[in-house]
Amino acid sequence: MANTERKTSKRTNSRSQTSSVSANKPARTSRKKAPSSRPKKTLSSRAERLKNRSNEDVSANKTKGQKDSSPVKGKKEKTELSSPNFVETDKVKQLVTRMTPYLKAGYPLHLTGPTGVGKTSMARHLAAQFDRPVMLLHGNHELDNVDLLGGISGYTSDKLIDNFVRQVYKKQEEVKEKWSPGRLVEAVEKGYTLIYDEFSRSSPETNNLFLSVLEEGVLPLYGTKQKQSYIPVHKDFRVIFTSNPEEYAGVFETQDALLDRMITIEMQQDRETERSILRERGNILAKEADLILKNVSKIRKACENEDKHGPSLRASLMIAKICKNSEIDISQKDPQFIRVCKDVLSSHVMKCLDVKSMEETENWLEKELA
Ligand SMILES: Nc1ncnc2c1ncn2[C@@H]1O[C@H](COP(=O)(O)OP(=O)(O)OP(=O)(O)O)[C@@H](O)[C@H]1O
Ligand SMILES: [Mg+2]
Predict the structure, then answer these.
(1) Which spans in 140-270 are helix H?
(2) Which of 172, 273, 294, 324 could hold 160 in an S-S bridge, CB 3.0 to 4.6 Å?
């Protein structure tokens, strides 16, 4: 014990010595000397350091299980998200102009509609307009409060062994839980733009967290054993939700209270928009785009007659890309083109028309695409 005390007093002495040295020097002299001994700090270098630090913050926050959330700061993310492939037709521009004020006013936007209509692409494009980091969150039935709020990611332990006097042995150990904040905590605290894609694939219990985020501007930290009971929502925090209609497989019914807090816009297929996207993305001629759309539309119509959702723009883009890559002539006379169309569209025929065998599907497509 005496030894420990000795040790402590020694440390105290050395600390007081250091402070007395600086205290003995005239304050003005030391202040004047400091800048000349270090590289000159300019405003721009300070801004750069701050920028670097914030970039480090974001990457440091990438913890286990945050693979797809990885927000990247600044312009890089902006360019990646707004995708050079995004096609802004007049209809798309109108939609962007209609929805931007809602987000600017801080209201959550909800894009709904059938698969392949362009909800995620639009959400990413809208999010990239704001000069804030963007976080992507994908809804799924396993997403829970631990993913969103955080949880115990391990333990830290401090061990102190005091055996300074041989006869005395003292061991002190302290184990603390290590808490890693969840994705929503990070987005809410730092004011990111959150794209919660396919949010209705997560359970309503998980999505309940958004009720107070969207209305009261606080994120409650239920069951996290944190001292704080909630986190205030950053003024720049924005959310764009996307979802498929409720009749889709694996989709939960959304609670009215959540729908009541967001502005829901239904996105629909539009032939002219599809044509422009197909032409630009597929790098094909107008007549080639028309031919692909004609074939896809036949199957789509047949599906709609059965009250089912047929092939989307995705199928048209697939056909265009495959043909372009393999230099297949986009012409009804080219058997290779017809083959590609059949392969891309056959699963839709089987799903929608209750056709049992592949052979039957082939025959049906043969007649339709003739
Ligand atoms: N405006 C656009 N410009 C360029 N490509 C687009 C545009 N809109 C949609 N696409 C393309 O169309 C395809 C379907 O779009 P997207 O994935 O956004 O649809 P979605 O509605 O989110 O579908 P799902 O409900 O299946 O998730 C993608 O390949 C996407 O790149
Ligand atoms: Mg999507």
Answers:
(1) 145-149, 183-190, 204-207, 209-215, 256-259
(2) 172
